[in-house]
Amino acid sequence: MTDLDELATRLRRLEDESDIARLIASYGPAVDAGDADAAARLWATDGVYAVDGWRMESRADVRAMIASDSHQKLVAKGCCHFLGPCVVTVDGNSAVAVCESLVLIRDGDGYRLWRCTAHHFVLRRAEGGWRIATRTSRVLNGNPDAHALLLRGLAGSA
User: Fold this and answer.
1) How far apart are CA 6 and CA 53, in angstroms?
2) pLDDT at 27 > cutoff 80
3) How many helices and strands, by DSSP H and E, does the chain display?
4) Is 9 exposed, middle or buried (0-12, 13-18, 19+ CB in 10 A)?
5) Distance CA 19, CA 35 (A)
6) CA dist., res. 35 & res. 126, Å (int)
7) 51-95: pLDDT as tens digits
8) pLDDT at 1
9) How remote is the C-alpha of 38 from its chain's centroid?
10) CA 124 to chain centroid
11) ∠ at Cα 91 (86, 94), nearest 5°?
12) Contacts 24+ apart (CB under 8 A), 90-95
């Protein structure tokens, strides 16, 4: 491999990591604006979103969750889904990312913390860019499953 080839490979990896971080960071603003279409587009059409005790099996299921009355009421009341910086491991056309999130909800004149959650993402490159193939989320309440998600993501393991 020439120096130029190595540089091109490194640049591609950095671009992929940046694109994935942007994709994940887009979730909070999309759901907090109540834009079900924008949030659902982050997933592959057959993408999975598994939250404690709840599993969405497609982009359409994710869209339906965000468009639901319960989520739209949360948006109308005021909420903030903040996903922290993620650690991304790219391997060709697939990747793993891990991050944590805080969800704040409006409470009187201020906000209160509602949830702290660990997130493990498996992503794949598709036409038009990276998409979420699987997102697994577990509340950080001492649950060993949440800790395992964080460790798997840090190791770059799907």
Assistant:
1) 44
2) yes
3) 5, 7
4) exposed
5) 20
6) 22
7) 998 999 999 999 999 999 999 999 999 999 999 999 999 999 999
8) 76
9) 13
10) 13
11) 75
12) 90/13, 90/16, 90/17, 90/20, 91/156, 92/125, 93/124, 93/125, 94/122, 94/123, 94/124, 94/125, 94/133, 94/158, 95/16, 95/20, 95/121, 95/122, 95/123, 95/124, 95/125, 95/130
CA gap 121, 132 in Å, rounded: 7
pLDDT score of 139 more than 80: yes
pTM (two decimals)? 0.95
Antiparallel, parallel or unpaired: β 43-51 and 129-139: parallel
- pLDDT classification of 111: cutoffs 50, 70, 90: very high
What's the token pair of residue 99?
């991050």
Strand partners for 117: 101, 139
- Average pLDDT over the chain reads 96
Which pLDDT belongs to residue 116? 98
